[in-house]
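Sample log: SAM-dependent methyltransferase.
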Amino acid sequence: MTQRLRLNKNADRRLKAGHLWIYSNEVDIKETPLKDFAAGETALVEASNGRTLGVAYVNPHSLICARVMSRDPEMRLDRSLFVHRFNQALALRQRLFDQPFYRLIHGEGDLLPGLVIDRFGDVVVVQLNTAGMQVLAEDIVDALEKVLKPSAIVFRNDTGGRRQEGLEAQVEVAKGTLPDEVLLEENGVRFVVPVIDGQKTGWFFDHRVNRAWLNSQVAGKRVLDVFSYVGGWGVQAAASGASEVLCVDGSGPALEQVARNAELNGVQEQVAIGEGDAFEALAALKADGEQFDVVILDPPAFIKKRKDINNGERAYARLNREAMRLLGRDGLLMTASCSMHLAPERLMDVVRGAVRHQDRHGQVIFQGHQGPDHPVHPAIPETSYLKALGVRVFRD
């Protein structure tokens, strides 16, 4: 018999508005003690008056103690549900893209909280970020085989969210055989993706549209790509006609992939690499008198929790100031943030402050966000996280 999870009075307002999360302080623990639930267990969620609100999975050890999977109290959390949701998600991606390279499942944005799946042709990479999804791992694999028939399914279960859920880190090929190189194509440029030992799932599809815009601006330009990872921005810039590209990253293995990806696209002569801390690299380039027509800043999340906001905003401000010092008289800055806790207007404030610090003028000529394969749930602001600004920086 499925357990019940009863909420406190008025604690159902967010759920009624469409949100899928339940926090531990919203639960009536006298009526339904959280300690009675096993991590990942299914429960019927009830309002304080006993009215059923839907089906969720529960983790009593997490601040977000439950996540709603369906409003239908009769819905079973099993293979059939995943097949249905995967087919819904696939229909959207096939409408959007003509090649099988995209984020197939974007957690709450695709009504599957705690689950991320990226597709690289016949290879899919899965992140089970919650105890509830971990419990359902076999059903997820079975549903993927039914819907996509992939040649390989990789589990990249090494995210910070898993630690918060009390889960162990684990990276493995869950099904099939992984090819020697996993390839994708984005904006007409080919890449090798390190799905086993790269960042996250190995690639960041979320910037696809923003990269496409920048690609239209770089012909004949000298480009600096900071936090380059495997060259998603920089190699595409070179393939789009940039005269020179310098990719800077703190990871030697990532820069080796930059070189491989540049070679894959025949732009190895235009692409150089530099290993080191981003702030130190920016300072060293300035000391050497270097100038660039375009600077790309795509850092990791400086603000992972609310308590990090002040320090994170200072880091973004410093980074943008240092980058602008390397721009010529009339340059272009592409600056981004994947920190959900950094509001879009605060990134604009960072740019404004950096422009004035350099005694220059700025014009925002592009505003971007995450691509359509990372759909935003209108009731869940947490699903909207990525911001990108294209800024012309110039002098009188």
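Observation: The CA atoms of residues 244 and 270 lie 5 Å apart.
Observation: The domain at 3-70 is CATH 2.30.130.10 (Archaeosine Trna-guanine Transglycosylase; Chain: A, domain 4).
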